[in-house]
Specification:
4 helices, mainly alpha, about 85% helix, rod-shaped
Length: about 100
Amino acid sequence: MPEPDEQQQSEDRLHPSAERMVRQVGEKQKRMARSHGRDYNVLNAIGILGVVGWSVAVPTLLGIVAGVWIDRHWPSRISWTVTLLGAGLAIGCVSAWLRIEREQK
């Protein structure tokens, strides 16, 4: 009769085909991680945040500059600075959204 330790070890083991499948899945995961060529760590996360921040800031600032220029050269009742600031902000937010979606894939 098997001793309790031997019996426990035999119950903990997987069937050989299940062990093979687990090994194959592990190898495929390693290959997929290598093929993406990225390690996700804190520095990469900070880099992504920086890119997203700039993708919002640049269109917003360009909208402000263009709006101030239009307001100085062609004054009107409409404040082009505020209008183009809003448009630049909207474009920047959409750009950031698309960038984040692309990074998640």
